[in-house]
């Protein structure tokens, strides 16, 4: 069983437990559900955008604890002030140390920036939940979803006025997963089955394979300004970066320094 298999098995149990506690009808009356969403597409297409999707992540299955000494409010506010185009907030507790409270805190501190709920979405319930938590963008991972489920979940996202980031790792996932409800295509440079790869080869290989009408972003394994410049040259508009920032004592200052080198 791969790490991804274990995560999805655990996630199915977690979602079932959450459904038993709070209904979808209740979610539609909670938190930020009625809030107008902020557009990731609009942010990335802004000529002045840095394209950086800055992530708050405490730990990962491959690295363990990355940073347990900073608060979500401190980091995400700093990210926004430094020039992030979007925030990504982990909400998976068991494998990544995230929580609903993290995204709620990020939303309260940063009302106008797009926020991606970074989690393993397998059920419509989680999309309603994300909207109530204040998220604007939903991540759908091709590695653990069938084309039919991506279509079904993507439609729910669109119906709720949110945007979908489809994450792929190779051409097979890309070819079978694209549909009319995808707003942004992200290429994860780290294989979720082993979390081992440490380069952006996947993004470079898929750059010309992603349809030209799709906004494309590169995810993970990005730390050098030269890498971002290289990815921009082949058409990437966004760059999801977390560990590079979070492994330092001052994540926002690390982001600020990176932005200064790519503008």
Give descriptors for this structure.
alpha/beta, eight-stranded parallel barrel, aromatic amino acid biosynthesis, 44% helix, 16% strand, Indole-3-glycerol_P_synth, 13 helices, 263 residues, TIM Barrel, two-stranded antiparallel sheet
Give the low-confidence spans.
Answer: none
* Number of DSSP E strands: 10
Order of helices and strands: HHHEEEHEHHEHEHEHEHEHEHH
Mean pLDDT across the residues is: 95
**CATH fold descriptor:** TIM Barrel
GO molecular function: indole-3-glycerol-phosphate synthase activity
Keywords: Amino-acid biosynthesis, Aromatic amino acid biosynthesis, Decarboxylase, Lyase, Tryptophan biosynthesis
InterPro entries: Aldolase_TIM, Indole-3-glycerol_P_synth, Indole-3-glycerol_P_synth_dom, Indole-3-GlycerolPSynthase_CS, RibuloseP-bd_barrel
Pathway: Amino-acid biosynthesis; L-tryptophan biosynthesis; L-tryptophan from chorismate: step 4/5
């Amino acid at each position: 069983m791969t790490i991804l298999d274990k995560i999805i098995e655990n996630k199915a149990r977690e979602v079932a437990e959450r459904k038993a506690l709070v209904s979808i009808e209740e979610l539609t009356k909670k938190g930020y559900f009625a809030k107008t969403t902020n557009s990731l597409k609009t942010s990335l297409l802004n000529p002045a955008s840095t394209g950086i999707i800055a992530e708050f992540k405490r730990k990962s299955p491959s690295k363990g604890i990355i940073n347990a000494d900073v608060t979500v409010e401190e980091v995400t506010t700093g990210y926004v002030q430094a020039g992030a185009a979007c925030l990504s907030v982990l909400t998976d507790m068991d494998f990544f140390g995230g929580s609903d409270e993290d995204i709620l805190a990020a939303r309260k501190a940063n009302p106008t920036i797009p926020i991606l709920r970074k989690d393993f979405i397998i059920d419509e319930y989680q999309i309603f939940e994300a909207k109530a938590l204040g998220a604007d963008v939903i991540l759908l991972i091709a590695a653990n979803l069938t084309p039919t489920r991506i279509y079904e979940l993507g439609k729910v996202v669109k119906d709720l006025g949110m945007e979908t980031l489809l994450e792929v790792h190779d051409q097979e996932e890309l070819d079978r997963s694209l549909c009319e409800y995808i707003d942004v295509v992200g290429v994860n440079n780290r294989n979720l089955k082993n979390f081992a790869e440490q380069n952006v080869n996947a993004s470079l290989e898929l750059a010309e394979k992603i349809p030209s009408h799709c906004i494309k972003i590169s995810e993970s394994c990005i730390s050098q300004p030269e890498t971002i410049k290289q990815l921009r040259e082949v058409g990437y508009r966004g760059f999801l970066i977390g560990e590079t920032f979070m492994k330092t004592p001052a994540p926002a200052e690390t982001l600020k320094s990176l932005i200064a080198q790519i503008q």
